[in-house]
Structure formats: structure tokens, C-alpha cells
Amino acid sequence: MNSDEKLRKLRHSLAHLLAAAIKELYPTALPTIGPATATGFYYDFDFGGGAPSEKDLARIEKKMKEILPSWNTFDGKEVEAEEARELYKDNPYKLELINEIAAKGEPITLYTSGSFTDLCRGGHVENTRLINPEGFELSHIAGAYWRGNEKNKMLTRIYGLSFDTKEELDAFKKMQEEAIKRDHRKIGKEMNLFTFSELIGSGLPLFTPKGTAMRQAIVDKINALQSEYGYSNVWIPHITKKELYMTSGHWEKFGEELFKVQGRETEFVMKPMNCPHHTQIYASEQRSYKDLPIRYAEATTVYRDEQGGELLGLSRVRSITQDDAHLFCTADQIGGEVKNIMKVIAQFYTALDMYKPGGFRVRLSLRDPAQPEKYLGGDDVWKSAESVLTNIAENANLDYESIPGDAAFYGPKFDFLFKDALGREWQLATIQLDFNMPARFGLEYTDRDGSKKTPVMIHRAIAGSLERFLSVIIEHFAGAFPYWLAPVQVKVLPIGESHREYAKKVYSTIKRGGLRAELDQSDESLGKKIRNAKTEKIPYLLVIGDKEVEADKVAVESRDQGSLGQQSIQDFLKLNK
Amino acid sequence: MNSDEKLRKLRHSLAHLLAAAIKELYPTALPTIGPATATGFYYDFDFGGGAPSEKDLARIEKKMKEILPSWNTFDGKEVEAEEARELYKDNPYKLELINEIAAKGEPITLYTSGSFTDLCRGGHVENTRLINPEGFELSHIAGAYWRGNEKNKMLTRIYGLSFDTKEELDAFKKMQEEAIKRDHRKIGKEMNLFTFSELIGSGLPLFTPKGTAMRQAIVDKINALQSEYGYSNVWIPHITKKELYMTSGHWEKFGEELFKVQGRETEFVMKPMNCPHHTQIYASEQRSYKDLPIRYAEATTVYRDEQGGELLGLSRVRSITQDDAHLFCTADQIGGEVKNIMKVIAQFYTALDMYKPGGFRVRLSLRDPAQPEKYLGGDDVWKSAESVLTNIAENANLDYESIPGDAAFYGPKFDFLFKDALGREWQLATIQLDFNMPARFGLEYTDRDGSKKTPVMIHRAIAGSLERFLSVIIEHFAGAFPYWLAPVQVKVLPIGESHREYAKKVYSTIKRGGLRAELDQSDESLGKKIRNAKTEKIPYLLVIGDKEVEADKVAVESRDQGSLGQQSIQDFLKLNK
Questions:
Q1: Structural domain harbouring A461
Q2: Same domain membership, residue B545 and residue B466
Q3: Which of A363, B179, B513, B546 lies at a C-alpha separation of 20 to 30 Å from A171?
Q4: Which of B191, B198, B200, B470 should be substituted to probe chain A, the one whose Cβ sees the most A Cβ atoms within 10 Å?
Q5: A396-423 confidence digits (pLDDT tens)
């Protein structure tokens, strides 16, 4: 039994204990269902009137802990439907479940521990001594429709957290508190990075000047890093006739999930990915082997019709801006290109201090060697590509795992998973080989010997989606972004009225120097000004008083290094370009 | 009678002359209609079989010139429908026209000159001596459906050019030849700037690396110029719920012309303009008079459902990228903001050498002073805004024209019209005040006295639509773009095999220096390499032979200034940053 399975049994056992406590405290409450969750358990009850509120949780938890020592094992027995129906004759929820189980011809089981019996499929700890009374607690109460259907009655759901030990419970609670503090929606609002409008719709963020500066800083950084490797930016429209996706094969697979765009004459669809458009730029000219690799990059927005209920801040949106690139190359060039993309990934995540041992891992998805016929692109190409990718991973000394059978039918891929400050793992960068799409679009190049060949296509993203990436790094840095990414890099703080004029000069000089700067023009005290700026997590504060005006300098306060003393504006600019 | 009216009469008279010539050369041809056009005239005929082709035009033109001296005046007479029907009993087209005129109760008139009579509303020269036989010629033949309806029969349309003098005719023909040479679709293809794909659809250009570099250069230039004036970039999605346009009022006016986007849960529309989205960023925070003006800029693509038949290269597209900005300010701030926008316009078009006396003019659209009740926004605001705008135009010493009654109901505006190299005029930049939209969205700021006020909104575009702007400047420069805008700024040309290595070093140094560069790696002769690069109209060629390798320099050939001698790479970079 693995530890996940053990935890699941522990948590489900606690759901029984919760129901037992509720039956003692609220004898008329009707228990319904009570499963384990990823962090604990819940149980849904129909309290009729008089449902408990969160202030009652302590009392309920106390009752659970009182009952626990009186329990020993969970004793199951199979019963006839009639017997179960008799037992639950006053509980329409359990009756509904019993009738369903009976209709399927499945066994109906009751589990008893102490004096409490529940209709249940099983899955409990072997002995209640395995339940650590310090390892669980009730966390909160919410409404939940019976069976998740909003046409049904709203029940009261009581949630609990559960771990093996108190230490684990405390660690989880601390992480959760920290996650709430770092919630990108909260920080995004406080730092004024993005907003939503009900008139525009859910999942469609609007980026304010500060959020837009961060988007641009990310795109600029990636462009700068890849400029070493011969990328060109291109531009494509956000819509297309569906014929493009009928050719690429996406129509058949994803047609229903695409946003349809109705024009007066023609039906279009919004692009949910960029690769088919980019093939059409490749196809606009005759290509020779001398032209390859061709590397098209573009940070452009795709639209996906996500369900409203799945939308969440910037993590899950309908307007997804990808830092996308598509490379067209010969089979021989795959290794060199993948290596260069990896260098860009390494440099980009190093600039975020996230590319470090233990901080990320790589998944290499390969074909299922037992079923080579499932894959497109020829045995040779696959063999050589897989060996090239494996060698790269080995030589780069990466924490990587090969997963045979995980590749798409059109090619193997690398996925990069980075850990954030709370230890949560996020798949961000990706490099995917594609032996299929170039052929579907009839892409060609003329080889050295004059013959026509089909290029290989490489899809790659460094940040992934800008929106999702921002949600991850806002929470990772809790708003204290690295200098190059900070929405405001420098704030100029004149101490008093008489320092304002010089402060304005400093401000416009550093703005002209290309830094993202603000000038504090408020009438607050210096202490208040500094506290405000620290809340905003601005990397540098330039404080200006008499001494600075006199010396034609600024006093530099670094967020990360403390006071750096006086510097001339030009020196500050030079050091922080 | 103004000169337009005179030309129209001349041209329509020539249509009669053309029909007379056709009746002599093709007695069975049925004349239908023959109007004046903006550059001459045409006449549509049903030739049954045996229609003339373009090689017959000379013979037809000769016949016109033979007939002309025998004509004198166009003598009109009103006839009964019966008489007209008898005359045209074999011509179903004229019969259809006669029946229509009769049904409307309008007079039926026949005009005779020499021995030729035509059913005609009139509008001819007073005497055929006013027709200069050297001032016209037949230009081409095309098919045209009777009455423009594709369900009708295809007729043969013969086109002619017509001007007062031979000189004017020749000048027009020369301009037309030049326009064909400069056609942005032709140059765009030759210089490889953009492409279309049938799989994606008409009116949806894809920009190649070179075209994308030009788009970016334009946006960067505008961003750099306006950075002096406190603009911030923002980012908005390309779709919205229709509620946004119901609030802005666009839904009622333009609802039918918008692209509807169907999601599984919600209907969206593609944005045909950006202002309503930008108001929602303004509205996302409390604003104080101290925060104003707020200036949001964004080069973003709007989508408009243009009819397929109206689409033309980049001039008329469905994906329109606007270099848009929206400013929110107090009424007092209008003058200062408009002045600063004008500075940006002046600097931008100066960088294109288009902002010069005689090269552009400005239209100032004002309210109709007789109907102040037609306009939104209050009499004071209009009066002061109009006087501010008029003063600005006066003081800037602009070639401007005030057009009372031309303003929209929501505010006055400036439009900038620039002349291209062929003397054609294009409306490009615009500055529009808006006293309406901020109120519709309930935008507010807290004034000095604590009261809530509605800001004024200014819409402005410098280039207008990037696509249309590109179509204009590609034709204006015939591909020989100013250095800052050229898709390839520098090409490195090694003379022989032994210079390639040094050339590569030069190439990567100037690429790293941020210039858009190419390296000629072909095996062509130097002469051929230079000719190729000149066809591509690249501003600088860096030629590298023995002497340059030895001196660690490059020989600079300027497109506009000829040979500039040897320079070190660093000097070249410094001079051309």
C-alpha cells in the first residue's frame, strides 16, 4: 500500500468520525456522503434548519476527539437492499444511493465503528489507533449542492484537513496561509497589475500599465536571449478560416472547443494555437536547405473556450498569450536547435533564480518502443531524435526522467517543471518535435541534391502562457520581483518640499535612461513614503534630501541589499541598465 | 460650372463618341450605358459574339477621331415612351431603361450628335469643338455584368481616359504607370514583407520577418516619441461580451457589422475599436485630479467584417492593427495634450520626410454653430475646446481648414492628410475629442474640491492602421525606406571566399549592435551581389575585400549618398544607431 492510498484511508475514516460527531450534536441532521480529498476530507449534511456555522467547528472537532478513543475497527457487512432501506428510511439521500447501488447489482455494505454505522463502499484504516488526533482538524464550512447539481438542494459541507502527524498538518497550514498571502489575484490587485471587467467577461484580463510592463519585460528578455540564435519575429492574425485546421487535423479533434467567428460572408474561428498559421509563412516561399533552420517567434494571443467554472485569475483564462516559436529544420539539425533552446531556457530561468539544482526537473517523453507503428514520422527519425534528446539531457546533467509511451504520435518532447517558493511544481517551458504537421501542410525544402524534402518542425515556449506564467511568478516572488521584471524598478522619494525640483530632474533622467520609475509626489513623511514603497516591493528607492541635492547625487536604498549610500544618477543608471 | 463638372461633361460626351464608333464598326452591337468616371469614361456593349479585344482599341479610337469633326452639338429632345421603345425595339437593355424611366414618370430624352442618337439624361459639352482629340484615348476592356448584378448577362466594357489636354493625359498615364510599379502588393511580394494564405482567408495578412520588423520599427518609433509625454502601454483582449458595446452605444449603431464569436456558454464579439476596453482600465481604480492626464497606448489589432469585394492588399483588411491611444484628462488639460500629440505627429512624419510645407494639410472638424443642440458635452466645453484647437492650429502655422458642421456629435477633431510621392492624399493621423464615452461608462475623478467629475477622453492615432499605413509608405517610398524603417538596414557583402570569415564577424557584430542585417553568402560575383542588394533598396552595403580584412574595416556603400569609404565597424555602428 503506497502512502497516497494510506492517507486516503485515514482521511475517509475521519469523514466517518465527523459524521458520528454530528449525529451526536445534531441528532436530526441527515448525513449524505463523505469522501477523502487531496488535503483531508469533507462530509455533506442536510441539517434542515439550524446548520452549524464556522464558530461551531471547534465544538464538533472536540466531539470527534472524544469519540475517537471509543472506536476500534471499521466492521463492514453486506446487507440486502431492504435492510439498508429500513435503516435509512428517514434519509432520502442515502435511499437514493441505496437504490442506485441496488440497480447496478453491486453489493450494499454498511460499516460500523463504535456506535456509528454508515452506508459506505469501504476504504478505512485497519485500526482507529492509526488515527493521530493531533494530525487532523476541521477547517471550514461551505454550501454544496447534493451531487453537485445546482437543481438539487443545497447541503452543508464541513471540511477537514488531515495528515499523519501534527508537524505535517502545521506545515500544510503554514503553506496554505502563505499561499493565500501570495495569491496572485490578491497581489495583482494590491500592486495594480491587471483587472477584469464584467462588461468584457470572465477569463479576459485587462493589463494595466504595470502589468503590461511586466508582460513586455518577459517578452523582451526572451527576444534578447534568443536573438543570439537566429530567431525572427513574425505576425499573424487572430482568426482563420476553418480550412486551416481541417488541413492541420485540429478541426476534427478540437472543432467543438474552438470559438467560432461569424462574419457576413465567411465563418472564421479564433486561433487556439499558432503553429498552423506559422506554417503558412514558411509555405509562402520556395525554401532551400541553405535557408534552414528557419525560426519564427511571436508572442501572440490564442483564444480557448474554457468553461466559466474553470476560470481562475490569470491561471486559467480565455485569452492566452503564448511566447511561441516554431522552428523548421532538417533531421540533422534537431540536436543543435534543441540545445540552443535549452540554453535560452537555462538563461531565462537563471534570471529568475529558478534554474538551480532541486529547483526544477525535466520530463522527456518518448515513444512506446513496443508499438512503433502507433507513431508518425519513420523509425529512423524517431530513433535518431530520441537518442539525440537523451544525449542532450545526459550531457546537460539535468534532473530528468524518460517516460516511454508518453510522446505524442507526432514526436517526442521535453517538458520543464519548476518549483515555486512553496514547493509547488509548474510545467512552464516545453520543446516538442513534430514529424507530422509539416507533411500535412506539404511544407518542403530543396535539398543539396535537388530533391524535395519535408522539414521537421519544433514547437517551443520558454515562459509558456504569459498569463499563467505571471500567476506563477507573482506567487513565487510574492510581488518582490527581480529587478529586470519589476513593474516599477525605481522610486524617487524627495524628503521635503525643497527637494522636489531636484527629484523631478532625477526622475526624468532615469525615465529617459529607460528604467521604469515613479516619483513620490505625496505630502507624506519620509518614513511613510519609505514604508509605502516597501509595501510595493520596489527594488530601488532613491531618497533625496539636502545632502543629495547639494552633492548632485541620490541616496540608494536597495530592497534586497539595504542602504547602498550615495551615487550619482549616471552611476546608478550605468549599474542598473 | 466648376472644373469637375466640366470634365464630367467632356467625359460623358466621349462615351457617346465611343458608342457611335462601335455602331459603325460593329453594327450589331447593342449599346447599353456609358457614364463618365473619375479619370475618363466607359461604355458597356452587348456584342453578341465577336466582341473586340484590346488589340482592336486602336482601330476604335481612330474611328472616334474620324467621326469627331463631323459632330457639332448634342441636340436633346424629349419623346414619348412609345417613340423611344420603337427606336430601341431590338435593344432589350435600352427597353428596360425606358420602361423604368417611364414608370417613374420622368422625361425620356434622346440626344443626337452627327448621325448618332442615344437614350440619355444629358450632360454633354456645349460644342464638340471643346473635345481635344489629343486629350483622350481608349485604355482597356473588361467584362461587366449588366447593372452590376452577377445574375445578369456579362457585357463588354470599353474604358477610356480623358483630360482637357494631351499634357494632362500623359501626366496621368505616367502617374498610373508609376503607381503600378509602386503597387504595395507587388513591392510587398518582391521585398517579401507579407503574404496571404487561402487556408486563412482574404483580408488577413501574415507578416514575414521583414514585414514584422517594419511593423515593430513603426511601433517602437511612436513609443519612443511619446515616452516624453507620459504614455503607458496597456494590454486588452481581442474579444468582449456585447454588454461593453451596449454601454458604449456601438452595439446599436454597428452591431450588424461586428464579428460575433460563439462560445459554449457565452457569446462574445471581436473588438472593432479599443476605446471601450481602455475605459475599463481607467474604471478599475479610483482616480483623482492629481492622476490626470492618464494616457493609455497600445498597438493592438481590431477586426472588422469588411466585404470580400472591398478587400485590397494591406489597404483594406479585416485585421487592422491600430497604433491607438486614449487620454483621460480635465477640460483644462485638452490644449496641452493636443499640443503634445501634435509634436509626436510632427516628429514621426518628419522622420519620414513627409511633414513639410505642401506635403500635408489638416482638417479641423467643428460643430455646426447653428445647431448647438445636436451636440453632446455642454456649450462651454465645446466653445473652449474649439477655441483651444483653433489657436493650436493657428499658432502651429499649419495649412489647415476649419469645417463647421463636420464634427461628430461627441466632439471636435483634427485629421492629418499627407501627400505621397504621386501626389495622392491619405488621411493618416487623427486627434479626436470625446465628451460622450466617459459619461456613458460612468468614468469619474475626484476634483480638488472633493466633487466627482467626468474626464474628457482624447482618441489619437499617429500612423492610423499599421496595415494601411504600410500600404501607403511602401508606395510612397517604392520600397526605398528611410534607414530607421528599412526591413534590412545593412547587408554585408564579402567579395570572395577568403573574405567570408571576416564578413561573418562583421555581420554578427552589427546584429548584436541591434541593426537589422543580412549577410550575402551566395557565390555570385561582387557586381551581381551589389545589383541584388540595390534591387532590395538596402540603405547600407558593407563591402569586404582584402583591403577591408587587412584594415579591420568595412567599405560603406550608401543607397542615398554613394560610397562613404572605409569605416571601422564600431564607427559604423555609432553613426547608425
A1: 189-477
A2: no
A3: A363
A4: B200
A5: 888 999 999 999 888 999 999 999 998 8
